[in-house]
Amino acid sequence: MKILLLNGTVVGTKTKTLLHEIDKYIVGLKAEYETKQIDLENYQMEFVDGRPYDQYNEDMQYLIREMEQADAYVIATPIFQGSIPGTLKNVFDAVSPLAMRYKPVSIVANGGTLQHHLVIENQLKPILNYFRCLVTPNYVYTHTNHFSTQGELIDEDVHNRLQEMTRVFHQYIQMSKEI
Fold first, then answer.
1. Which of 23, 24, 53, 166 is 20 to 30 Å from the Cα of 34, by its Cα?
2. Which residues does UniProt assign to the signal peptide (predicted)?
3. In terms of pTM, does the model score above 0.85?
4. Is the backbone of residue 154 left (phi > 0), alpha (psi -120 to 50) or beta?
5. How many domains does the chain have?
6. Is residue 108 helix, strand or coil?
């Protein structure tokens, strides 16, 4: 079972930190999961404009393949200007609507205010519902105060919520095997 940990931004470190923590919790499940973290900052992305797959550069083809071949996802995103980053939306635009169907997805996000968690509800979940993903109900939203000045996750409650989200994600993965 291949789990893709997708960091949907090209700047900052907080979403990477969250994915590293989740990766540890997934390993702790002692299940037959292979995790792979993709940080979009490491790829030369092109705007999706309707071209056939093979007309995009190698990095875009790689990202599309990884998205479409994964069995489950943890998507991490910052919230910028009350929205998800364009880089993350661009990846979703590149993926076939059938590729993520009935695959489990958990969401973690980070924003500058407490109110930005609504972006998950009003933007990200509708996109994932369009793909007909199995979205876990307990996403984790963080903000600046949950991190040290060095970018380390320091809030114990957030650690607990990440562990619980990982537990539920594991259950969704087990459930998806029956579909």
1. 53
2. none
3. yes
4. alpha
5. 1
6. strand
What is the length of the chain?
Answer: 179
Antiparallel, parallel or unpaired: β 104-111 and 134-135: parallel
Nearest CA among 86, 170, 90, 100 for reference residue 136: 170
116: confidence class by pLDDT, cuts 50, 70, 90: confident
Summary count for the chain: helices (H), strands (E): 6, 6
The angle subtended at Cα 119 by Cα 20 and Cα 4, nearest 5°, is 30
DSSP 43: S
* Full domain range(s) for residue 165: 2-176
**Mean pLDDT value across the chain:** 95
Q: What is the pLDDT of residue 112?
A: 87
- The residue among 94, 81, 82 whose CA lies nearest residue 6 is 94
